[in-house]
Amino acid sequence: xxxxxxxxxxxLKGKTYELxxxxxxxxxxxxxFANGLGGELFVASGCDRDERxxxxxxxxxxxxxxxxxxxxxxxxxxxxxxxxxxxxxxCEPTRVLYxxxxxxxxxxxxxxxxxxxxxxxxxxxxxxxxxxxxxxxxLAHHRPWKWFAASTTPKFxxxxxxxxxxxxxREVMYYQSIEVRVCGTRVNLGGxxxxxPPPFLxxxxxxxxxxxxxxxxxxxxxxxxxxxxxxxLGDEGVGFNLTYDGYRRVDGSWTxxxxxxxxxxxxxxxxxxxxxxxLRAEGYVKPNAHRQDAPRWWFEPIFGGWGEQVFRSDxxxxxxxxxxxxxxxxxxxxxxxxxxxxxxxTLESRxxxxxxxxxxxxxxxxxxxxxxDTQLWPDMKQFVADQHQAGRKVxxxxxxxxxxxxxxxxxxxxxxxxxxxxxxxxxHLAIDxxxxxxxxxxxxxxxxxxxxxxxxxxxxxxxxxxxxxGYQKRIADKVRHLLSKDGLDADGFEFDxxxxxxxxxxxxxxxxxxxDDDGRPHTxxxxxxxxxxxxxxxxxxxxKDALVITHTFSPHFDDVIDxxxxxxxxxxxxxxTPQMAHRVKLAHAVAPGAPxxxxxxPMPSLYAWRKYAEAQPALGNPCLYYVxxxxxxxxxxxxxxxxxxxxxxxxYHRQLDERFGAGTSGVKxxxxxx
Length: 674
What we know:
The protein has 674 residues and is of the alpha+beta class. It contains 10 helices and 35 strands.
């Protein structure tokens, strides 16, 4: 690290970047990487609490402390909401880590990065009342909050994001906004719930990508993960924002998560690999304790009945007409023992022998998703035994958030739940920018805005409380029954709909005294990790080689998953293979060595199915969702399609023989196509 000084000005030169401070711009610091990407960063990031807006009162000149081959640049200041604040840039040879510490008390609303507000903003000196045209102020024009913000000047044109959405949007221009979050929806970009949560990482790029990229990765400590969204907020000036929604309380001192900024000379996947490797090396995530002993069957071909279930419903027939309702019609009623026995018998008659069978939505009774529906499955225990006799493993589809009385958990008592009081929690915070006009003489406080249920989630009154000891025991007992030989003897779970957590304030435990953490409210990443962990550890206790499948594409979940599912394929593309290959690369980065469930629902056409079926063995576990034909177009399979499956699955089994040894598969092998 080379440091040069000129009065109060200074420049730090690392191996791949230059960080410079000019006292003529005392609120900013210039960070430029060797590839020319970076920005003039606003130093005094705002940290809002208790529904109020944090604004900067004063900022001292920075100090530079050199240590070994690095240095720390520190700014001390004062804001309207915190007694003292310190902003730090820890400069290592090839990376910069930014964070800040606040002193005071309150409940965090959000933590901004490289963006904030000024208490005495010189731009407001020539502003008076906002007299814009309208019948009243409430209907007249309001300037957007970005107009009043002190932000970062970007030295990049595009931002890459690893959230997966149906439109396959991966990049936005610097002036647009995008987010990665736990609570995705079926609305944003055609649906961004497909991997929830994705990696908390953005990448800054030039317009043509020729300069490489710069990683901007969030480093969340394991004991401070009550966050919902990590947002990139674009405009002429840009910034980042982390939402807490009041779930993180500060009493004395709090240090924000660090932002890791690092030049990457390779592509976006090299950047993602680097970010995930850093998280693992520095102890920000826990490693998986079971995957190193993964049995062969975890990697073998999969059959899931959901695609055939939807094929037999009227969903896609009515999709373009007014008669369409719901997301899958009556497909759940096709999940029955006779139907699955027929599906498997039909496949076996074609010499297609999947090893992993996923019994999808819904094998359980309507009021309780962890109890067998004996009307649809009159003898599910015998069905499982029959599959075991054939060398097959049975995985049960589960939506973990739904095991509560608000959805499908009619035996869960009230005290084991979280509650969202309708009168005190059903809102989100917004900024009425009139508070920034001195003439209005208003406190810089946020306003309550109505939640949009069709966009944000499901209006449940209660949720499962995974921190409650009673709920923990209930899950352990249910899982033991479903997986142990004394019970159903199934072999694991496929968890879906991990986005079914409402991202709003005020969800609290009904019985705080019964919780293992003194009843502290939680949200987002932390509560989802706890919930999946209950099932995961109970599954391993019931059956050592139980398989747990999720679509949580975040390294923070690597310790509570065995397999990652590539998730649904809602798209307007003719060939979905490139999209799925992209998802596979994400899966390998966030969960190294994990098998990959390659999915097949919903396939856009038989053409797309054929292209993807040919490619699947190179991407992960080959997976089949259909027996008769394609659910969307109702094109039916031909004999050549079963030849394709026999050929590709035979070749895939030979690869597994080389890895695990010949004769180690418990299921019949398909014959090669003639």
